[in-house]
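Aim 2 progress update. The chain analyzed this quarter is reproduced below.
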Amino acid sequence: MNVSKFLRSFRIGATGFFHALHREQNMRLHLVAAIGVLAAAVYFQLATWEWAAVVGCVGTVIALECFNTALECLADRITREQDPLIGQAKDCSSAAVLVAAMTAAVIGGLIFVPKVLVRLGW
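Predicted structure tokens:
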């Protein structure tokens, strides 16, 4: 394995992540939510399987937001004019992020709500 190629690809990926973070308000929102969820995971001392579910959800939402940003950049490069097919592609890409975020919220609720209720004495 060529270490310099590996480090270069890692740097390129990090650059893309920070581009999405800078460009997209929703990416910043997802990142803040992820930090909060991970802090709650530490606080509630999640089991290994719970950590796997939470990290999997966080990673999926962040990855899809990056993909959505990439698709929007490509579409905007093609044309800034209204195009029904490009609009549908952007909508479907956004829908993928929405579905992942809603799924993550449900999984988070299944994991965290019982723990919060126990802490509240319910």
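DSSP finds four helices and no strands in the chain. The two ends are 54 Å apart (CA to CA). These observations will guide the mutagenesis experiments scheduled for the next reporting period.
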